[in-house]
Design a protein that fits this description.
single chain; 477 residues; Rossmann fold; seven-stranded mixed β-sheet; four-stranded antiparallel β-sheet; 19 helices; 45% helix; 14% strand; EC 2.1.1.176
Length: 477
């Protein structure tokens, strides 16, 4: 594949390095020169955004968008803070609504031949049964004369202001046709919210477990990003934390969870640097709360990752008892240790575990007959985080979940061997797919009929402004 050079708009205005007219070098990516009008500057930025979008689609491995953007923009000094915010906004809107925009363009091109919205959507679905083919179709559209149109449509759809701007007026009929189609069929509803129709079966399951109104609320929520949520590590620091947050954000409390809205970065806050708060989504915090451990009890977080839930579990223990954190990735355990030290939790221990066999119990745990609580927050499709990472619904389209569900059951089964008599096992995922949630729990209970199910639920969106997570609590015999 021929590698495209990313176009960069450079100002021809000479720099002045001496005297009272001295000015800093201008940012080439955003064209802040005085002789550019706002309209021209935005047009230049949108062309640069299109180049970045094309570059992301060109990657052989379809990387997670936020990580790719951070790496790509961070390695080039021409991109300042405002650039990163602008390009992040445009590309995340493209990821959120790119599937919808591609259908708008496709329908517009076929309406003259008499195609209906339903027929056009069906045809596009046939062309894009998996992530590879969808990536290819989005790439072809982006490299064609429709590339700038696709991004402009996504920007409009993010705000849905009526009517369409004059530059997009020729797409009015196809936009209206898809807007009407969303009321007629689930496929139309999915397209309107930028969700590939290949997810229809999983969403039908969600509908059966709730209601039609709940499903529509869930889909509508996918149009927006949830707020940033913090978790309070130390209850005695609540006043200091809320006082500092009130200076920079609109903050709302929900127990130890605090949602914040504002432009300032979190990492510079004293409450963050002191370890008084951590970044953690509301639903993720609720999963950690399912581990209702009390001071003196012993807990195992089997798939700890960077330790967000580990710290949430440790907080109410008040440094009494012990929390073991394991993960297959040892560099993640280094992060757990750093965060535990910063938060002044001294009862957290770490060890590697690959999940291939039951954990070899530490002596103090073996002497006690096992752990009081075990949490298995296993690897999953991450469908519950689409609001925060909309590119995941594009990159995982048509993914075979068989290997993933086999791993989830394996981890749950091996972890259950470490629960003491009468202890509890919590299973969670950041997914709303029934195949990763209730189906795994049901199979575990079929294989282990002596265990009992205490509770099972989806948490978060659409009832709360957050991600969507599943949690089940099982009790050992």
């Amino acid at each position: 594949m021929t590698k495209r050079r990313t176009p960069v708009n450079r100002s021809n205005k000479p720099s002045h390095r001496n005297g009272s007219n001295s000015r800093p070098q201008r940012n080439a990516a955003t064209e802040h020169s005085d002789h550019y009008s706002p309209e021209v500057r935005i047009a230049n930025q949108m062309r640069q955004a299109l180049a970045l979008w094309q570059e992301w689609l060109d990657q052989r491995n379809w990387y997670q968008l936020d990580r790719w953007l951070k790496h790509t923009l961070g390695k080039n000094r021409k991109y300042g803070k405002r650039d990163r915010l602008f390009y992040g906004d445009v590309l995340f809107n493209a990821a959120r609504f790119g599937y919808w925009a591609a259908n708008v363009i496709t329908l517009k091109n076929t309406m003259s031949a008499g195609a209906t919205a339903a027929q056009s959507v069906s045809r596009f679905s046939e062309l894009t049964p998996d992530a590879f083919s969808l990536k290819e179709q989005l790439g072809l559209l982006s490299q064609s004369s429709s590339g700038e149109t696709l991004l402009a449509l996504c920007q409009w759809r993010a705000h849905c202001e009526q009517p369409l701007p004059q530059a997009l007026s020729e797409y009015q009929a196809s936009v209206q046709a898809l807007q009407q189609y969303q009321h007629d069929d689930l496929a139309g509803t999915l397209v309107w919210h930028g969700i590939p129709t290949s997810y229809a079966q999983q969403l039908e399951t969600l509908k059966r477990n709730g209601s039609d109104d709940a499903l529509r609320s869930f889909l509508a929520a996918q149009d927006t990003r949830p707020p940033l949520w913090l978790r309070l590590n130390h209850e005695n620091k609540r006043t200091e934390v809320m006082t500092e947050l009130a200076e920079f954000y609109k903050a709302q409390e929900d127990g130890r969870a605090i949602s914040i809205e504002g432009e300032r970065g979190v990492f510079g806050l004293d409450c963050y640097k002191n370890g008084w708060v951590e970044i953690q989504d509301w639903a993720s915090q609720q999963l950690a709360l399912k581990v209702d451990a009390t001071p003196g009890q012993k807990v195992w977080d089997a798939c700890a990752g960077g330790g967000g839930k580990t710290l949430a579990i440790a907080a109410p223990l008040k440094n009494k008892g012990a929390v073991w954190a394991t993960d297959i990735r040892e560099h993640k355990l280094i992060e757990v240790k750093r965060r535990a030290k910063q938060a002044e939790f001294y009862n957290i221990r770490t060890a590697p575990w690959d999940g291939e066999a039951p954990l070899r119990l530490p002596k103090e745990i073996a002497n006690d007959g096992g752990f009081d609580w075990v949490l298995v927050d296993g690897p999953c499709s991450s469908s519950g985080t689409w609001r925060r990472n909309p590119d995941a619904k594009l990159r995982n389209t048509g993914e075979d979940l068989t290997k993933l569900t086999q791993l989830q059951l394996q981890l749950l089964t091996h972890a259950s061997k470490s629960v003491k008599t009468g202890g509890k096992l919590v299973y969670g995922t950041c997914s709303f797919f029934d195949s990763e949630n209730s189906a795994i729990v049901d199979e575990f209970l079929t294989n282990n009929p002596e265990w009992s199910l205490k509770s099972s639920e989806l948490m978060g969106c659409p009832n709360n402004n957050s991600d969507t997570l599943f949690a089940a609590v099982l009790q050992a015999p």
